[in-house]
Amino acid sequence: MQMTTTCDAEMTQDKVLANAMLVLPDETVRGSVVIRGDRIVAMDTGAGVPNGAEDCDGDFVAPGLIELHTDNLERHIHPRPKVDWPHQAAIVAHDAELASVGITTVFDAIRVGSIINGPNKKYGKYARAIATEILSMRDSGALRISHHIHLRAETCSETLIEELAEFGPEDRIGIVSLMDHTPGQRQFVNLDKYEGFIRGKYGLDKADFEAHVAHLFGLREKLGVAHEAAAVVAAERYGAVLASHDDTTAAQVAHSAGHGIRLAEFPTTVEAAKANRAHEIANIMGGPNLVRGGSHSGNVAAIELADLGLLDVISSDYVPSSLLLGAVLLGQHWGDMAKGLHTVTAAPAQSTGLVDRGRLGVGMQADMIRFRVTEGVPALRAVWSKGVRAA
């Protein structure tokens, strides 16, 4: 990439990060970055430290991380069963946690589609209210990082269509993902694993669990096809990117491709990941899967897809800190830190049409992180969002 020469920081009000290992899209180079306002205005190579610049002492300086699918906000809203934490406080805490681990852009995953008549496991609608609160706090400047909305469309639910109708183009929905959590397929092909997960999480006895499963099968048979079609139409109306979820077979991927899917969240098999690549659908794998060395559900390991050249994007899913750690682990595994960081910066930006972030370059938004790697683990030193120190 083309570099421009920096001048002494003392001559301007610019922020200069010097003597850093700059993580560029295809390489890492020793150099400096100049921030003016919310933009990168100059870059240079070399280890020099201009007057007034911050000496990064060889630390990595990379673009801020971009998170496409995280359930972390729900954990703050419901820290315990039956506890509904004050939403504005939960959003602020969620925002601060993401900033603290280097995430500067997030697509907050919010469920649309509720079960209100289930025999044992019920959950009500909340998406419109939470989205309104997030957008209001974002617009008021209360949040440290950039927040976008990701609607998780539960096709096997009772209220999906009416909940989708509560959103429009003015909400600037970034992603709509098609979710089918009916047991016996996709993430939970193994019903025994699903039973262990659900009964352990919600305290259901055997009879309650069987009634719950029967209800889900009934919803899928009655509403699944119509709800999936409605979600696809809604995404087009919003101008959102469409994502599939937990595709397992090539046939499922072909079905997804027919809808215009561009992102595949957590494919569960090599077969599905290969089919996604053939259809030019980006494969997203979980940071926790990568860090732990495998899937907690018994599905394909993220590192296996990485070794096959089939891993495009990492999502932190339910552990925000796994995003940077996973990218660094990949960089070490591949012997190419730029390639590892690409999965959490440029790749997710490209997948969602964010042209002003995801890479270091003149004119780009000044979303950046500074970190060093100690004993194989990234230690974050600083985070900037739109040129302002966020952590």
Automatic annotation (TrEMBL):
InterPro entries referenced in this protein's UniProt entry, alphabetically: Metal-dep_hydrolase_composite, Metal_Hydrolase, Metallo-dep_Hydrolase, PhnM
Top-level lineage group: Bacteria
GO biological process, one term: organic phosphonate catabolic process
One GO molecular-function entry: hydrolase activity, acting on carbon-nitrogen (but not peptide) bonds
Protein name as annotated: Alpha-D-ribose 1-methylphosphonate 5-triphosphate diphosphatase
Organism of provenance: Shimia abyssi
